[in-house]
Amino acid sequence: MRDFSAIDRVVITHGPTALESAPRLSATLNCNLYFKRDDCTGLAGGGNKTRKLEYLIAQALTNGADTIVTIGGLQSNHARQSAAAAAKFGLDCELVLEDVTNTPKTDFYNNGNILLDQLLGATIHRLGTDENPQTYCENLIVELQVQGKKPYFIPIGGSNVVGSLGYVRCAMEIVQQIEQQQLSIDQIVIATGSAGTQAGLLAGLIACGSDIKVLGISVSKTTEQQALLVTELLCSVLEYLELDPGLAEGRVHTNGSYYGASYGVSTEPMIAAVKRCASLEGVLLDPVYTGKAMAGLIDLSDKGIIAEGSNQLFLHTGGSQGLFAYREVF
């Protein structure tokens, strides 16, 4: 394996983030639940993208960039954290944000992450559902270059090999915390979308020699589609780390049963899961990612698919800022 500590990184995350038990929530489940609090990474409200941005911003600075360009939905947590990282390092930030159909609209356009993006000084390009954000970005980058700027493009969710390194580091952190706290974790449950968090986490666990299972609850794709996306990125990350990509075999587990009609669209189980976590543990989930992942964990526990008495670690990837945009559904 290559020397991981030698890979360029800027320090943004307030870490290590806590790994804590959730006794009151556990009492309503058939398992023992723990939270990995990556909602508390510290960058403009925190979230999992902060870890990815440590490596992406480092590469942008090495490349001499002066502007960050990235894509997301209008209430993208990734966009908020990208805007905050750009502000922290003196970079301009261009956010290409697309509308999401069938989302509650009372607060969607002006509250939540959109409000924070504006406070952070980002330039927001709002796209309709019929516009192609990738094409728009390509044209925007050319336009910026003509203006003499040096843009650095970050893919949706920061989920390329470089961004995924943030979760290789997180996996190493988790393994160390489990050892320090003398815990036995049977499975890590996460929300999985653009795949970088799950792929990076798996690559890090593989690098540590850990066989802990990671279950990704998909927020936008079928089980099979998400598994393919995660597997492809995991193999690329393993190759980057100079590890055998064959080690990915049998490690990717996804479940596409809980995202509802489509990405960002509310479900009753998500609403119930958000309310349960808030009222029992004082932990705020989000309506798009962690709320749906927790709804999946609760249902799998209720059905006995998650083994009775097992130790489950829920990796809280943040996003509670989005609750304010979805106020009317709560």
Could you describe the 3D structure shown?
α7 (196-207) links the parallel β7 (187-192) and β8. The chain has a six-stranded mixed beta sheet. A four-stranded parallel beta sheet has the order 5-4-3-6, sandwiched between helices. It folds into two domains: 4-48 and 160-329, Rossmann fold, CATH 3.40.50.1100; 49-158, Rossmann fold (3-Layer(aba) Sandwich). The chain is built from ten helices and ten strands. α3 packs parallel to α4 (113-119). It is α/β, with parallel strands linked by helices.
Write the layout of secondary structure elements.
Elements: E1 19-21, H1 23-26, E2 32-37, H2 49-62, E3 67-73, H3 77-88, E4 92-98, H4 113-119, E5 123-127, H5 133-146, E6 151-154, H6 161-180, E7 187-192, H7 196-207, E8 213-218, H8 223-240, E9 253-255, H9 268-281, H10 290-302, E10 311-316
Parallel strand pairs: 2-10, 3-4, 3-6, 4-5, 7-8, 7-10, 8-9
Antiparallel strand pairs: 1-2
Helix content: 25-40%
CATH 2nd-level architecture of the largest domain: 3-Layer(aba) Sandwich
Work out the helix count.
10
Extract low-pLDDT stretches.
none
Put the structure in a nutshell.
The protein is built from 10 helices and 10 strands. It is an alpha/beta fold and 330 residues long.
Which labels suit this protein?
330 residues; 6-stranded mixed sheet; alpha/beta; 4-stranded parallel sheet; 39% helix; Rossmann fold; 2 domains
